[in-house]
Amino acid sequence: MTPKRVCTLVCTISTTVFFWWMMYSYDHSQPSDNTHYPGYKNCLKKSKVAFLKTHKCASSSLQNILMRYGLKNQLNFVLPTAGNYLGRYIKYSRSMIGNTPWERAGMDYQIFCLHAIWNYKEVNRTLGTDTTYITIIRDPV
Description:
Layout: H1 3-25, E1 49-52, H2 59-72, E2 85-91, H3 101-104, E3 111-112, E4 115-117, H4 120-127, E5 132-135
Parallel strand pairs: 1-3, 1-5, 2-4
């Protein structure tokens, strides 16, 4: 046998023994739930979320997550009739969605996550007092 084959064989056997040892030395008596994440199982779903989008902070990724969450849980979004901005150059006001079919139908809103110039008072008036507010902040450097 060549030295190269011997080395390959020794490495293969050593790796196999190591992985077998790791598998069987693991303490299986520990509970398999997520006890190392305190509060994980005790958290409550939020039904009303307002997300202040911030440019260049992965806010579109978080917006996508919120939209998927809203669709999965059948929540209503604050949306304009067209586009993805709620008042591109002026502060958000509930009157901006006043002519939408869903506003005329009197729907309640649960998620606010589009581009808007933030106006806490109006967002709070749109979603209600039990809303959770989130954003992303980054180091400007």
